[in-house]
Amino acid sequence: xxxxxxxxxxxxxxxxxxxxxxxxxxxxxxxxxxxxxxxxxxxxxxxxxxxxxxxxxxxxxxxxxxxxxxxxxxxxxxxxxxxxxxxxxxxxxxxxxxxxxxxxxxxxxxxxxxxxxxxxxxxxxxxxxxxxxxxxxxxxxxxxxxxxxxxxxxxxxxxxxxxxxxxxxxxxxxxxxxxxxxxxxxxxxxxxxxxxxxxxxxxxxxxxxxxxxxxxxxxxxxxxxxxxxxxxxxxxxxxxxxxxxxxxxxxxxxxxxxxxxxxxxxxxxxxxxxxxxxxxxxxxxxxxxxxxxxxxxxxxxxxxxxxxxxxxxxxxxxxxxxxxxxxxxxxxxxxxx
Length: 337
Hints:
A hairpin with a 2-residue loop joins strand 15 (236-238) and strand 16 (241-251). The chain has helices spanning 198-203, 294-297; strands at residues 12-20, 26-34, 38-49, 52-63, 78-86, 91-100, 103-111, 118-122, 140-145, 150-151, 157-165, 191-197, 212-218, 228-231, 236-238, 241-251, 263-273, 276-283, 305-313, 316-323, 327-333. It starts with 11 loop residues before the first strand and ends with a strand. It contains two helices and 21 strands. By secondary structure, it is mainly β.
């Protein structure tokens, strides 16, 4: 998928979520970026040829920065949706980044059909004394939910979400710098997990916006992800555990610059323990995919592959991903020996 002549796509189409309408038709929910870096979430029916995704037919916009907390005086946007179908709730759960008055903030919306979405509101992380900080102070991105309840820290079933807090507050308050939670010495943004008791969410969907029992899952380990890591699509259950495709960033970050030009985003994978999804059983030392094609190497932010959705079509898994913050690509995910 590439930008059309629609003004809503003037600065790119990227980082899609995915899902199926009630008739089983596969759709993407791409981030559409208009002039001024104002993002909306669209709906696009996927064209299949021989079972292979080859294009899309646009079906309009399903989420725009209409709520006051999704807009600032000089910015606005609903960005980078991740969508998980959770059968036990009978809902698609969308996590997205609301670009509001205080910068990026994670938020949730739900839908039964991908077309009509109800905002549940921004995430409100429960205060956890042992962390000696309030997670609500920090920008947070790359939020994605598991598709079914998992064991919580107390052993009880819970709906879990992965997320990525960013500890540097200097962007908001000059000179404030990095504030790390207790027990964390590495300031690079990594993957965290938080939980909502299953019974609470099943009684009231808004409980999903009030996660608790926050734990660190993983930090950068390898050169291709040396700056930061973040979750990609919703975890997929495989025989070894939960397969989590993630992105890793290397290169050089420019302070106070939104559109980085000297970084590289690649995709890797982890296996999380089904008995304790905060525990990493294995992870890729080398990326599964790195920028190679022209569309991946040249764009708003060059050298980016950013996986955000995975779908199975006729027994084959396909990963949909952002290309250099400008286009959307698809890759076949193959299992090998």
